[in-house]
Amino acid sequence: MTDLKDYLDPVSIDKPCFPNMAEEAQFGRSLTVNTENYTHSLLDNRDVAIVGLPDDIPPANERESESANAVREKLYSLSRLPGRLRITDLGNMKRGASHADTIAGLTDLLSVLRARGVLPLLMGGSSSLIASADDLCRREGVSYTLASVDSRIDYNPASRDHNRFNYLARLRRGDRPAMGHYINVGYQTYLNDPQVVNLMRRSGYELLRLGEVREAIHQAEPLFRDSDIVMIDMGAVRQSDAPGTPMPSPNGLYGEEISLLAHYAGLSDRISLFTLFEVNCRRDVDAQTASLAAQTIWLFLESYTQRQAENPSDSETANGGRFTRYHVTISDLGGEMVFVKSNFTERWWVEVTRQEGEKGYLACSYDDYLKANANEVPERWLRVTKGTGR
Predict the structure, then answer these.
(1) Domain boundaries in the chain?
(2) Helix 288-304 vs helix 255-267: angle between axes, to the nearest 10 degrees?
(3) Pairing between β-strand 229-233 and β-strand 144-149 as defined by DSSP bridges
(4) Over the stretch 339-372, which tens digit does the pLDDT of each residue have?
(5) Beta strands in 36-104 (DSSP E)
(6) What is the mean pLDDT of residues 366-387?
(7) Other Cβ atoms within 10 Å of 342 Cβ, number
(8) Burial 232-252 (b: 16+ CB within 10 A, else e)
(9) pTM (2 decimals)?
(10) Which stretch of DSSP H or E encloses residue 285?
């Protein structure tokens, strides 16, 4: 049996000061915390487990979880979450003797949380640690979709190094990788190798440029709804809003935009892991990045309490009153497309038949339905039905 004490250091931060908030209104009332003196099971009847990650890949130092603790302090200074979400803060992941050992330990920890039906929420650390989730999925024979909010597509075909700038190389390895599909939200063209962008598109992956996100941010919601793992790289936020990242950039998402994307992620009833990486508090200014990261996590958790489990295939049954089906004829297809709308959440899906003949539903937006009515075929539908995507 796995002993969590072998993998985790307890929470050790100064008690935050809340001059404007009664104790019962504080975020701490929303969770149990792993401290030196806590003796009860931290995973009993829990929905979400927060885990801080070590900061750097090189050998350990005495401040290895400094950034995770900086975010934690700001998170604890926020208000209590609405609803009845049961959260535990497990503390900080211990660093292994090597980066590979850290990944192996985190893989074991994620396995324990998955077996208990607890959603892991990882914060701090390098995005290269996402390899732990990939290793777990490979071990269990599970395919997953990864949605990454990042200004860079972290893949270098000329390098075999596994680091924060090349973690996708590891996730793509082998003839049958566990990562069945990859989505990038917010990449910036001038920060990426054009050949890598083209390779990603040829692989059927979905890439949404920063300008596209800013023009119609609601179009990102269906992407998160179809994702199993969501990772946010704080470097996707512009430097003026988040200076404390390893490679800050003057352009990027606004603080409100990164928070809204986290809100979309929390509404997904498919998500199995949420991560927020690349906070470097030693470069931060007045804890601005840590504060934004904490607020982003809070908004994810708030929307997670509101998520609704919906299965659009129920629209085909006699008990499908929660949904409305729309049949749209498109001349170029010589047939029709079927859209499904939830009458409760007003979310949309489109019916797809994959190349192998499997029928399913793809999350989409109302805009996709309007395009179909204008005789345009939605790009996501084409990618799936023509076999260029998952």
Answers:
(1) 4-304, 312-385
(2) 30
(3) parallel
(4) 999 999 999 999 998 766 678 999 999 999 999 9
(5) 48-52, 87-93
(6) 86
(7) 17
(8) bbbbbbbbebbbbbbebbeeb
(9) 0.94
(10) none
Work out the angle at residue 340's Cα, subtended by the Cα atoms of residues 336 and 346, and round it to the nearest 5 degrees. 140
Query: Whole-angstrom Cα distance, residue 166 to residue 99?
Result: 14
Nearest to 247 by CA among 163, 123, 145: 163
Residue pointed to by tokens 């003057």: 250
Token pair 């512009």 is found at 238
Q: How many CA atoms lie within 13 A of 3 on its CB side?
A: 3
Closest of 37, 343, 273, 260 to residue 132, by C-alpha: 273
| 327, two tokens | 């049949």
**pLDDT single digits (tens) 293-330:** 999 999 999 999 999 999 999 998 877 789 999 999 98
Question: pLDDT of 123-144, one tens digit each?
Answer: 999 999 999 999 999 999 999 9
CB 250 within 8 A of CB 168: no
Residue type, 38: Y
Three state DSSP letters for 148-175: EECCCCCCCCCCCCCCCCCHHHHHCCCC
Token couple for 13: 């931060």
Q: Which CATH superfamily is domain 4-304 in?
A: Ureohydrolase domain (3.40.800.10)
Contact (CB, 8 A) for 118 and 159: no
The encoded tokens of residue 124 equal 């701090």
Alpha carbon 300 to chain centroid distance?
10
Instruction: Tell me what the pLDDT averaged over the chain comes to.
Output: 90
Banded model confidence at residue 19, pLDDT cuts 50, 70, 90: low
In the block, residue with structure tokens 């690349």: 278
Beta-carbon contacts of 205 under 8 Å, excluding residues fewer than 6 positions away, are 181, 182, 183, 184, 389
